[in-house]
Amino acid sequence: MATGQTDPRRRERILAAALDLIAEEGVAGVSHRKIAARAGVPLGSMTYHFTGIDELLLEAFTEYADHVVAVFEQHLAGAATPAEAREAVTDLVHTLSEGPRRDLILVQELYTLAARREPYRALCVRWMRRSRALLETHFSPNTARRLDALIEGLTLHRALDDDPPDRSLTREAVGRISGED
């Protein structure tokens, strides 16, 4: 890169480094210095791109929530019938619960912040609304709300269980909540 040119991906690298550090050390272990070192940027870049650690964390978690919503979209987009939508929700639970441990940790760190601080709670509320809106393309609003809670709960339980329940239990739970007996 020529002298005087700015690094167009620096902000993205900082946000990615913040999420990586949160996954490794928790929010409490994150600092400007550690993030800058992980991202390979000068420490001064932190204050150039973000007004403070809260702005950085909130933006990083917002990007993470966008990623999870995109996973919802990928799974639900192809469903054309109620049966396909139920199977897409089943697949979604298994994709999320069998995904990287990093994702499980990031979700729990975000929920902990949301329980304590309004900006993170507002982010979670927006995320839940977006997830439910995607579910509502296939299910009633009340069913979408119940399925969203089921997805969160089963994902966590499956990810933490030494012997997680198989697809048949997930499929049955999705069917019962969505009105299929």
UniProtKB/TrEMBL annotation:
PROSITE patterns in alphabetical order: HTH_TETR_2
Region (Disordered): 162-181
DNA-binding region: 31-50
InterPro entries noted in UniProt: Homeodomain-like_sf, HTH_TetR, Tet_transcr_reg_TetR-rel_C_sf, TetR_C_31
A family per Pfam: TetR_N
Coiled coil feature spans: none
Transmembrane segments: none
Occurrences of domain HTH tetR-type (ranges): 8-68
Alphabetically ordered keywords of this record: DNA-binding, Transcription, Transcription regulation
Name the record gives this protein: TetR/AcrR family transcriptional regulator
